[in-house]
Amino acid sequence: MRYPFISGNWKMFLNKTSGVELAKALVNGTKDVKDRDIMICPGFPLLSDVAEILAGSQIQLGAQNMYYEKEGAFTGEASAEMLMSVSCSYVLLGHSERRHIFHENNELINKKVLAALQGGLKPILCIGELLEEREAGNTESVVREQLTTGFTDVNAAHFSDIIVAYEPVWAIGTGKTATPEDADNVHSFIRKTVAGLYSKSISDEMRIIYGGSVKPDNIDGLMAKENIDGALVGGGSLKQDSFIRIIKFES
Ligand code: 13P
Is the dihedral of CA 205, 155, 166, 93 positive or negative? Predict the structure, then answer.
């Protein structure tokens, strides 16, 4: 049984005042929600303040990135331990904006996955193909490489803590969602790939969430699909009504 996981990535939006206000509204608006996990990823400077609001609620906290070293002279970076100390449970790794704007590659992302697990954070490994890769018929080879390298040296025992987010780059912030069928096909391929790397029971248990222009009007169709276990929502997580409706998907 894979428990639905609905998460919001605030990216570089909201400040302390607006972030705290949204977090309060989300806590109030989800009190009656049962049987699903909820998580939000505010920007680094907001984490402590949002953590205070979320304390005692069912909404968990995540960070949008981290560095793999434990500590040191790495200006501008944050370690797993730092994120744990402000109550983060999850961390997004390999988000397409990190890959394409900040040139993170699969090898670096793998180091981060290993460091997150070692530090006690649950990694959400973000993968997905560019439009030209999809059009050239390379979606599966791109995704396979992102998974194979991203999970190098990851112990099977850690898989209960790992989530994969499939975010086709051409669907992020563009208003173009993958159809539920397209997304489900890639999710099914991801599950088969993880079964090949580890085992069928591990891949059957692993949650694979979808991201890319998820909105109140498409969440129900996406969540109805067998292999879609949740959502990683960008723009649609920045307004309380929109994100609460997404959290309360019906399928
Ligand atoms: P949008 O929902 O704004 O397309 O962003 C998706 C995303 O990148 C979430 O991590």
Answer: positive
CA distance 38 to 21: 17
Q: What is the mean pLDDT of the chain?
A: 97
Note if 187 is an active site residue. Answer: no
- Is residue 1's pLDDT more than 90? no
For atom 9 of ligand 1, the residue with the nearest CA is: 234
| CB-CB contact of 170 with 176 (8 Å) | yes
Domains of the chain: 5-247 (3.20.20.70)
Whether 200 has a pLDDT exceeding 90, the answer reads yes
Catalytic residue list contains 21: no
Q: Which of 99, 170, 232 to mutate to test the pocket of ligand 1 (most atoms within 8 A of CB)?
A: 232
Torsion on CA atoms 48, 236, 30, 219, rounded to nearest 10: -140
pTM of the entire predicted model: 0.97
Q: Is the CB of residue 244 below 6 angstroms from any atom belonging to ligand 1?
A: no
User: Which among 3, 78, 19 is positioned nearest to 54, based on CA atoms?
Assistant: 19
